[in-house]
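A note from the maintainers: we've had questions about how concatenated examples are separated. There is no special marker in the raw files; a new sequence line simply starts the next protein. For clarity in this README we add a label.
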Amino acid sequence: MPLLEITDLRKSFITPDGATHTVVDVPTFALGEHEQIALSGESGSGKTTFLHLIAGILRPDAGRVTLAGREMSALPESERDRLRATHIGYIFQTFNLLQGYTCLENVLLGMKFGRGVDHAFAISLLKRVGLADKLNHSPRQLSTGQQQRVAVARALANRPQLVLADEPTGNLDHANARESLALIRETCRENSAALLLVSHDREVLAQFEQVRDLKQLNRAAAQ
């Protein structure tokens, strides 16, 4: 059984003029344990919506999202939150770090919503991403690349089975983008997490052995 399995997933939004705009209409998609797949698509193609549906942040209009044998899309909000906290790590393009907390505290806070706080593991993750000397720095004291390293550590803090990465190199320069992508892939392997990364950057996509095009997955976009 795949770690992640999607069947007839559909999500639409109402436009300002009252029309229905279907953003996601994916008949089938699967991701195996430890597998790493990049999903390509231009801005506005529905990549973030697709990830939000997988993570249970949004509920689909129809279809199923099954993660680790549980149907995420059928769960009430509280159980979706719990399943997401314990099974999914999310790397946001804008990092979403809490500015009033240190790097270490950002990682520890993420643990409180998952499997429980593990201070030693949080420190080991930050050391792994090259921030051993930045544990007590606030995000505003870090470079953009360093902030993303905190976001990577936080995403892995609860030892997720699946990491979702939404344009994780979009705010980085070329050198930091290549380094960060390698770090994300390596830390996922080291922590036995599968990875689904979305990007429109050809250089990022070229680093993956498996690349899927959202337009080809998505019936609605192809019509």
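[label: protein 2]
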Amino acid sequence: MAEGVQQPAFRVEGLTKVYDMGEVQVQALRGVDLELMEGEFVVLLGPSGSGKSTLVNILGGLDSPTAGHVYFRGDDLTLVGDRNLTLYRRNHVGFVFQFYNLIPSLTARENVALVTEISPDPLSPEEALALVGLGERINHFPAQLSGGEQQRVAIARAVAKRPDVLLCDEPTGALDITTGVVVLEALDRVNRELGTLTVVITHNAAIRELADRVIYFADGRISRITRNERRLKPSEVSW
């Protein structure tokens, strides 16, 4: 995280999410309080069902809480309405998921251009792909790319609009360790060079060493938060 950057991008207060599953209610979040700072790299760790993905979906405006508030740079996302929530997602948030969701009939450049054509101040597709180390692969179709390369195209697509926040749900979950390291290097570079607040959900505990802070979840609550004195680079981590 850049020195002197201490302003919270997100402030979460009393965040609760209950899903109605027929006759059963599932409490995914139980009164979470949290601040996420501008420009930091945060890893969320915890077992499946502990609330990590629910939190990230609410931060990204993909889901709404049952109770509580989410403030993004002072604006309460729980009060802005559907249209403004759509604009928030479009202008401020990039998403990276476990599965790449690329359009098979489009080249890497064209997949990234889908985002840059509707963004107010985008990187060019070429710049975004160069940032993730795919400058030589811009004219290849997804079927001509490895899984790791496809995930890096997905990262390029997410960061091409210069989002303030990059939310990643198991971005290396479908990849082997060697390929996963390359993908994590792309995320690390985006965070360091663009100053993008980067939040990564993972089951791989080794990834915590890449973070400024590690937030541990259990049963819909934050169980503890730790801070790394020094962030390791992906190539320095013992996998």
